[in-house]
Design a protein that fits this description.
Elements: E1 2-8, E2 13-18, E3 24-30, H1 33-41, E4 47-52, H2 57-65, E5 70-76, H3 82-85, H4 92-104, H5 116-148, H6 162-170, H7 176-208, H8 211-216, H9 224-234, H10 243-249, E6 254-259, E7 262-268, H11 274-290, H12 292-302, H13 309-330, H14 363-366, H15 377-389
Parallel strand pairs: 1-4, 4-5
Antiparallel strand pairs: 1-2, 2-3, 6-7
Length: 399
């Protein structure tokens, strides 16, 4: 078997092939993928191919997989290839040779490559997050414009209601340039808002058909955005051996520096998708407000110390990740209870738990690929449980 290392760039691909004894069989460079595939397809032996994950790594994976003589494809994690990025002598030819040697020695730090539908799902989730951040930036610019001219405007969210928007449009700015800036920002705000609504409509349609997304929404505080992001990035539940590995995948575990009797734990690693980590933290805070069990865990970690509230929130998010993973693996709905709406002058009390065990999602549904239009019985059961356990309309929207 030949072991092929590829150093892939936008307009150049460098290839190194090692034979069964680890010796260099052939080295070459190509200006496009078609020429590379033609050479690989004509080789007389079976191939194992390795390259670094970068932009477009999924499309290259699909094209390599179609070659009849390719038996194994390993996509390497670029952040864990110390042999390459810490080298004192680094160029494309050397990098391709090192990748081929790591493949030959079976030492490649691999990344998971989802199918095309899941990659597009993830991309839509990330794009929506970018649009939401853009909308926030526009609102901040409008606030700054008012402050520049000595006006605070309506407090907090009141500026973005219908009456607040009418006030903003009617407010008399002193100069034509300031009025032009307001007009451009408001137009851009309307455009971004429409794009977000269109994206959320499509994402909601996918989530309603997915048994895993409906299952996770039975957790108090976990809304459609958090559940879909978690399912899309976990993808195949079976690729994680334990729930602890999922917390590490999302970067919610503390960094560690241990030697002998010394064991120092630092900040969380922040590895993995930042969008999901942010959504999970927001969902944890919503869960603290909605569920007595989640609040009890948060308060136990915080220990009535205001300086530990952020630590407690991240730890609660990590715990929720493990709970969500276990639910996907078992197919069981949430066991958390919810706070009832308090009457005037009375404290909130918890509702009785309403839990129902459902059959685990099928293998195709446990994976994050969006299902077909016909909904399975398991997804219908999970959807009915979701509708029964959603918070009242007066409560704030979940993350």
């Amino acid at each position: 078997m030949f072991h092929v290392g590829l150093d892939v760039h936008l307009r150049k691909i460098v290839m190194c092939i090692l034979d069964a004894y680890g010796k260099v069989y052939k080295e070459a460079s190509f200006s496009d993928v078609k020429a590379l595939l033609a050479v690989l397809g004509a080789l007389p032996q079976e191939l194992a191919v390795c390259y670094e994950a970068s932009c477009g790594y999924g499309a290259l994976y699909d094209r390599l997989k179609r070659l009849t003589n390719v038996r194994r494809i390993e996509v390497a994690h670029p952040g864990q290839l110390r042999l390459i990025f810490r080298s004192k002598r680094k160029n494309d030819r050397v990098d391709a040779r090192k990748l081929a040697m790591l493949l030959f020695l079976d030492q490649v730090p691999q990344v998971h490559v989802p199918v095309q539908d899941v990659r597009d799902w993830r991309a839509a989730i990330e794009f929506r997050r970018a649009q939401v951040d853009r909308r926030t930036a526009i609102k901040n610019q409008l606030r700054a414009l008012l402050r520049t001219h000595g006006e605070a405007g309506p407090y907090r969210k009141a500026l973005w209601t219908k009456s607040g928007r009418a006030w903003l449009e009617a407010f008399e700015l002193p100069t034509p340039l300031a009025r032009l800036q307001r007009t451009v920002l408001l137009s851009e705000l309307d455009g971004v808002g429409g794009q977000i609504q269109a994206l959320e409509k499509e994402l909601n349609a996918i989530g309603r058909k997915h048994a895993g997304v409906c299952l996770l929404r039975t957790i108090p505080g976990v809304g459609p955005r958090t559940s879909e992001a978690f399912v899309a990035y976990v993808d195949e539940v079976k690729r994680f051996g334990r729930s602890k590995q999922v917390g590490s995948y999302f970067g919610l575990v503390p960094s560690q520096d241990q030697s002998g009797a010394s064991n120092r734990l630092g900040h969380i690693t922040r590895q993995g998708p930042a969008t999901v980590r942010k959504l999970l933290t927001e969902a944890a805070w919503q869960g603290v407000q909605r569920s007595p069990e989640i609040r009890a865990r948060f308060e136990r970690i915080a220990a009535k110390d205001a300086g530990r509230r952020k630590i407690a929130l991240v730890a609660t998010a990590h715990w929720l990740v493990r709970v969500m993973f276990s639910m996907l693996r078992s197919g069981e709905t949430s066991r958390f209870t919810r706070f009832e709406k308090p009457e005037s002058g009375k404290k909130r009390k918890a509702k009785e738990p309403k839990t129902t065990a459902v059959s685990p999602p099928a293998a195709s549904q446990t994976a994050a690929s969006p299902p077909a239009a016909s909904q399975t019985a398991a997804s219908q059961t999970a959807a009915s449980q979701t509708a029964a356990s959603q918070p009242a309309a007066s409560q704030p929207a979940a993350a």
